[in-house]
Amino acid sequence: MTPLAAWLSAFAFTLVVEAPLYRRALRDTPAAHPWAPWLSVPTHPVVYFVFPALWPGGPLTQTLAAEAFAVLAEGCLLHRLGASRPMTWALVANIASAGLGLVSRALFGWP
Q: Which residue, 52, 97, 100, 111, shows the most beta carbons closer than 10 Å to its own?
C-alpha cells in the first residue's frame, strides 16, 4: 500500500469514529453539525505525516505528542463552533479513534 493510500485508509477510519462524536458534541449548535466530519481534516495529516518525520522521541512519545496536538487543535475548533466541554469531546474522540485503530490493526491489520 502506498503512503497516500495508507493515510487515506487511516483517515477514513478516523472520520468514521470521530465524526459521530463531534456531531454529538455539537448537538446544541445545529448550524455547526455540517462541520463535525471535517474537524479532523486539519490535524490528521499533521499527526500522520509530520510527527513521525520530525518528532525526536520514540514511537510512544511521538504518538502521545501527536494525539495531544490533535486534542488541543480539535478542541479549539469545537470551542469556536460553540461546543460545550470542547476539550473533553476532543479527548474522547481522539482516544476512541486511536484506541479502536490500534485494536483494529492488531485484529485485522487495518488501518
A: 97
Indicate yes or no: pTM above 0.90. yes
* Per-residue pLDDT tens over the stretch 35-70: 999 999 999 999 999 999 999 989 999 999 999 999
Domain span holding position 91:
3-108
Give how many domains the chain has, as a whole number.
1
| Alpha-carbon span 103 to 26, nearest angstrom | 27
**Type of residue found at 23:** R
Query: In sequence order, what DSSP letters do the residues of the chain get, joined into one string?
Result: --HHHHHHHHHHHHHHHHHHHHHHHTTT-GGGGGGGGGTTTTTHHIIIIIHHHH--S-HHHHHHHHHHHHHHHHHHHHHHTT-SSHHHHHHHHHHHHHHHHHHHHHHH---
